[in-house]
Amino acid sequence: MVKQERAARTRQALIRAAAEVFAEEGFALASLSMISRRAGVSNGALHFHFESKKALADVVQMEAAAAVTRMTDRAETADGALQVLVDATHGLMSRLADDNIVRAGFELCGDPARGDGVDLRRQWQHWIENILGRAEQEGLLADGVSPDSAAPAIVAATVGFEVLGFRDPEWLSEQKIIRFWELLLPRLAGGEA
Amino acid sequence: MVKQERAARTRQALIRAAAEVFAEEGFALASLSMISRRAGVSNGALHFHFESKKALADVVQMEAAAAVTRMTDRAETADGALQVLVDATHGLMSRLADDNIVRAGFELCGDPARGDGVDLRRQWQHWIENILGRAEQEGLLADGVSPDSAAPAIVAATVGFEVLGFRDPEWLSEQKIIRFWELLLPRLAGGEA
Fold this sequence. Notes:
TetR/AcrR family transcriptional regulator (chains A, B), homodimer
């Protein structure tokens, strides 16, 4: 039992270390020995848990996807689909700023060396499209605004904040997202929201 | 003279090939032999023109920056700063879709293996901030909208289109940008634009 706990802790340390190394170096330059060194475990211990760099990237992205889903699930307890949307964009930015696994999970989506894996940006896009559909059903969208017309701008802007935030964390600040919604929300909700 | 022309043509073929290889493989996995093979020249010819992969990436990004500046200069001949802004976003997307040097130049900005180089996204951000300043001076912005409040959303959205467009060219289509401006312009310009 104690042994199992230790193994679980080592596995988690490896995932965390991998996320940091992927975010800093990119997938191509990240090496298994960098990752095991960062986690403070032997190469042998790494290979016991993960067979390859790809396997580690897969797990980082799956854990990032799960963290984003937990965040959107929590956001969905708010009243009204537009409030849910605003809360979730704040939630995503704060996780990108604070959680290396979420940050690396997204960054790997744009890494040409990485190939496939969970596409977190697409998962986020689908979530935005769904919540805007709900906003429309709830009668919250302004005249002439539809989920189809609004989703691309919101998806693109949040992906832009994500990408720019890797180089300059200021882009992930609460202030930036507040301003974004001050600009867009009156147009989305017809000025009454 | 003929020799000089041939050298200039070889150099340009190498820059074009480098842009393609950088965009497909990322900076870390791109190799000089991939690039010379793609350009149809010998390794020796490559080394005659460029001393390293970094030197090639520097030139790709400088040429991309020059192409973006030519595009914004042309856009600036339009009447009114908001029309200039709209035209330039269309111009950027069509260049990202059609010009491998511009595409690679931007993609290298987000590549963790690439380190420094011309930051095209920052150049674009400065241009957006300037043109919104001009729009404000021309009295074109709606009440309560300032360059500071509008620029981040426009910069982030266009960077988002750029990044999403690498995986799915649909994001760079004219239709996507038209919709973006249909959503945002009435808010930016107070509904009269």
